[in-house]
Structure formats: C-alpha cells, structure tokens
Amino acid sequence: MLSPSLILAPLLLSLFISASAVPGQSPLLVHQSSDPSIENARVNAPAVFNAIHSSMRQWGSSLKHNGMSFFPATVPKGTLLYHGTHTPEPVKGMEWLAFEVEHAEMFARPRRGHVPGSRPGGGHGHGPGKGPPPHARMDSRPKSPHGGNVHGDAEDKDEDSHGYLHTYRTSRSLTKLLYIDGMSAGKTSMGTLDSTDYVIRNLSHASTEPNHVSVTKR
C-alpha cells in the first residue's frame, strides 16, 4: 500500500506544471492611447477627491481659491438667497446672491465713501469701525475698466446713505446651474475670476476684453 506522501507528490507536481504554463494575466480592457490614462487617474485621485470634498465649503474653497472644477448644480424650490447693497431697489440683470446671510450682510452698507454721519469732503480716512468690512472693500456691483458700472446704470449723485439686506426665495427649482469651485466670485487680482471670466465673459488668459458672442436664453 502506497503512503499518502507518495500519492500527493505526483499530484502536486502536475499542479505546479499546469500553473507554470499559464501565461501572465492581462487587463480585461487593453489600454489605448486615446483612452483615459489609468496612471493619470491614480496620480490625480487625491486632487479630484479634495475638489469634491471642498465644494461649497469655506475652508477648502479659500485654501484653493483659484477654482479649476465645474459641477452641474441644482437649487431646490423655496431656497433663501441673500443680497447686500446700498439701494432698496431689487436686483436686476446679472448680480450675485449669497446662500449665507452673513456673507450678504458684509455688503449691506452705504456705497463706498458715503458713511452715515460723516461730513462731505472730510478726507479719505476712516475712524475706528467706519471702514468697509475687511473682505468687502469694494462696491457690490462691479465696475467696468472705463469707470462706469458694467450694468449700464448711471451714477446716482444723490445716493442713499443706508445699507440694505435683500432676501429672495426661489419660486421653482433651478436645475440648469454651473457651480465653479474656489473663490470664483471673489473680485481679486489673484486669479479667482479666471474661470468665471472664461465661462461668462468668454475671456481667455491672453485677452482683456470679452469676445462678443451671442448668448441664447433658454
């Protein structure tokens, strides 16, 4: 009678020969030069994760202030939006709206240079607490390079000296929105508006004036 060790030895030998004859495994899908790069996906995975995690968050958006990512977005019906300005007139045309009331409150102040209680022509200095908020040192409505308002409004010589906080509520769901990450609405010289200028004003990095193209309203 053969011992169990003598029976197992030929069996293991045949399994070893069969396993060694199997060729090396290949990916299920052969990578083509035009396909997305698996290596690039692996390298960029942390950046993609951080972009998604930081979207609509203050810390990540401030840390990476020059936005590079675009997200399709929606705003549900009944969402409250806020706008701070120097006039009681409702928003007309293209304007900014904030999701957080604290953000809009920084702009709910008189137009720059019109401080309540200050004397006209009293100099350019501000006393303690009379200057604009630290992160809102410019008018809430952007100016054109030629000094006028980009919305075409004439400068009101008899401006009000009060600030106003507007509250708006969406009357229907907004489903065709584009969210640009970072501080893409920040009017700075650090490049925060580059993505916005490219999408809304059709500005490239080499141009300073918008390319005039027709935009179809839907």
From TrEMBL:
Composition bias of kind Gly residues appears in: 119-129
Stretches the record annotates as Disordered: 111-162
Keyword field: Signal
Q: Where is the signal peptide?
A: 1-21
Q: Does the keyword Signal apply?
A: yes
Name this polypeptide is given: Uncharacterized protein
